[in-house]
Amino acid sequence: MTTTTPSTPEQRDDHRPSVHPGPSTPRWPRGARTIRYGGDYNPEQWPEAVWREDVALMRDAGVDLVSLGIFSWVLLEPRPGQYDFRGMDAVMDLLGDAGVDVDLGTPTAAPPAWLWDRYPDEHPVTRDGVVLGRGSRGLLSPSGPGYRAAAAAVTEQLAARYAGHPALAMWHVHNEYGAPISESYDVHSVRAFRAWLAERYGSVEALNAAWGTTFWGQRYADWAEVDAPRTAATTVNQAQRLDFARFTSDALLACYTAERDVIRQYTPDLAVTTNFMATNCPSLDYWKWAREVDVVANDHYLAAERTDNHVLLSMDADLTRSLAGGRPWMLMEHSTSAVNWQPRNLAKRPGELGRNSLAHLGRGADAVMFFQFRASRTGAEKFHSAMLPHAGADSRVWREVVGLGADLGRLAEVRDSRVPARVAVLWDWESSWAQDLEWRPSVDLRHRERTEAWYAALWRRGVTIDFRHPSHDLSAYDLVVAPASYLLRAQDGAALTRYVDGGGHLVVSFGSGLVDEHDAVHPGGFPGPLADVLGLRVEEFLPFRDGETGTLASGGTGRFWADDVVLEGAVPVDVFVDGRAAGQPAVTRNDRGTGSAWYVSTALDDGTLDAFVGDVLVAAGIAGDLLPEGVETVERVGEDTRWRFLFNHGDGAVELPDGLAAGTDVLGVLDDHGDVRVLPPGAAAVLASEV
Ligand code: GAL
Predict the structure, then answer these.
(1) CATH 2.60.40 spans which residues of the chain?
(2) Is 340 annotated as a binding residue?
(3) Which residues face 425 on adjacent strands?
(4) Euclidean distance between CA atoms 533 and 598, whole angstroms
(5) 631-690 maps to which CATH number?
(6) Of 35, 188, 258, 413, which is most buried by a Cβ count within 10 Å?
(7) CB 358, CB 683: distance < 8 Å
(8) How far, in Å, is the centroid of ligand 1 from the Cα of 248?
(9) Catalytic residue at 176?
């Protein structure tokens, strides 16, 4: 393989998101100015008579958008190059006549059997060398030329045929890239990985330097010697694995953009997107992906058994809005009740379907969609809930679906309003890819665990956050939280330092700033580019035994981790009084001008974390009292109106505290007792007031 001309450092660093997040060509589905309502629709599973019944039921429920054809490749192209659009034509016409718009899927997440037969060397291969077979769903090798050509061909046929169809409102490319196939170790992927590396590094020498291949004698003399980081005798070069993760996200993104660009030739004005899984897809760098979709669309499923799953829902919705750059986004899929793929598939209880939907709406969704409209009788997902369950229309779920449609109608004016936030929490997929590899100081050093802990503490105070990548412009925020930001580029650390020097407030948790973009320890040790702004150095990590804790001077406890800290300007705020870290600071503060930088060297228990977050919010000038337990609030703000969303996730009625109770109760769910307004258990309320 030949070496390409080295690109400039800026060009090579195209792995960084741009300064501002969000789609570079934003568009919304064509048509009605409503909160879009509907779901995946798979009529191919049913005889035509059922389609008519479906469409009548859709109208009863206020459904005005369905995602169609997502898994119908073999029906549209039963043999290579032979197309049959009769079924799709009939459904498109039926929906169009009924005023139900279509989010038309490209069917490339369900390759037909003939494609598998055609390209045996494009079958995906796992890290352990298992060659995956057909009979499920997914794709062939993301870098497979045969797969890509076939995907482009069927996409072109669809785009050409339906470009002018009155029902067509937008495009839904593929389905959930990254699941179930992400990394593939087939020959085409290895070849494409080498080309990607050549583009990034320019020369094998530069690759050797970046990957630190002198260690364990891994030096490469030629690109052809470089392999994907498949399972080996023991742990594999971590910089190599990090680059393969980056490559994989890019390879899948190229599959998406190829289909999108075919579509754009036929319908340049229609929105094209693909469905994300914001906090639940570990393998795609959605900051980069979000630039390439016209509207951010997200799928979210509750972790049914987690009692805090409503907090995780909010976190997922906030990340989705952040990916959208604050613009309205589409909740493309969630479930009316149980899913079928978790160990125990708990049904949602009465009211939960609507509460979940409005929680997404409150955090910026302007479309509420489900998987799927009618429950399947056959196939892998027959035990998955749907808008229309197996029990039929005479059922609680269907009545709630109809009720939700009516509620969304009452909330139509919320559309296009924004969700203001004064706090940013850093989120970086590259950092979590690196951090989750083997041979780290402790398995308890987890970005996800820390992010959830900090997010929940802010949620309990009703403080809305945006997620941001460390390279984004953070100057609009009063407070930035960096939870276990393991990989932090020197320039991003410098930007965080400037942010504090400009009057910002920064909280950094343990395990941050440890390595650079090549997973190499920063020169000068820990916490690398954050040492100066935090006013300290970490000489050594002090990870805890499983279950071990340390007592703090404040009376709280620290878990998982502590550091041997050398203070160089920072003052201790809380200190370990016993255990392996006795005498070491657990919390420090470093004031710089009107800004401040705080370091938290351990996982604080919830009560101590709550108190600490309260102190930091005061320092940053942000209001945020602890809310009654189980109560959630978030606000959307339009030109003349603000809508306060309130949720009671608990079992008891809650008197609304002053400051949260004002406004017109749009859905009429509060119990008013004189001056006191009560939020019933399980309720979702929206209070409208003038801006
Ligand atoms: C999603 C997927 C849907 C359906 C759903 C079930 O991840 O996009 O096609 O499988 O899960 O929960």
Answers:
(1) 631-690
(2) no
(3) 467, 481
(4) 9
(5) 2.60.40
(6) 35
(7) no
(8) 21
(9) yes
